[in-house]
Specification:
Layout: H1 5-8, E1 12-16, H2 26-31, E2 35-40, H3 43-51, E3 58-63, E4 77-83, H4 94-104, E5 105-113, H5 136-140, E6 145-149, E7 158-164
Parallel strand pairs: 1-2, 1-4, 2-3, 4-5
Antiparallel strand pairs: 5-7, 6-7
Length: 167
């Protein structure tokens, strides 16, 4: 999550899929002055976030699906962050998710495992299964810049993709 603007030009963040054990950078994002709206699909994770010690970092908490975003507090966000998320939807749904994020933010940043990394259901949450396996081309064809960490198809390897839609 190396996006200097998030720390030097704080604004509104649409954060997809945070939960109490995985809310990357929430402390530094909040301290930098960003207003964070979290969209999470699974109700038990919403309930856990409401009770978590870092609840004060979240300005708005909305239950919804990135492929069919619900009404949100802001029509437009400065940044959309979807960390460890694309792998949880099938590749056939990926373009629809991108359209939703791109319609709502000036900058879209995503991370996911690089290549095939099987993952079954965790925390009794049916939305934690890995349904899509991504490589750089999956993002580049949508005009995203991509950086990879580690070799493809290796546990711990990551892709980060980002695209400025407006500056």
């Amino acid at each position: 999550m190396f996006v200097p603007e998030l720390f030097h030009e704080p604004g509104t963040i649409l954060y997809i899929g945070a939960y109490n054990r995985r809310f990357f950078g929430s402390g530094v994002l909040h301290q930098a002055g960003n207003e964070i709206t979290v969209v999470e699909i699974w109700e038990p994770f919403i309930d856990q976030l409401k009770e978590h010690r870092f609840r004060h970092r979240i300005a708005h908490l909305v239950q919804g699906d990135v492929c069919d975003l619900p009404a949100l507090p802001h029509e437009q966000y400065d940044y959309a962050l979807w960390f460890h998320g694309p792998e949880h939807i099938g590749k056939e749904d990926f373009p629809r998710a991108l359209v939703n994020l791109e319609a709502r933010a000036r900058l879209v940043v995503m991370t996911c495992p690089w290549g095939r990394f099987e993952h079954g259901m965790a925390h009794n949450n049916p939305f934690t299964r890995h349904l899509g396996h991504y490589n750089p081309h999956d993002f580049i064809k949508h005009r995203y810049r991509v950086a990879g960490i580690g070799p493809p198809d290796h546990p711990g390897s990551q892709l980060q993709a980002w695209r400025w839609l407006q500056r």
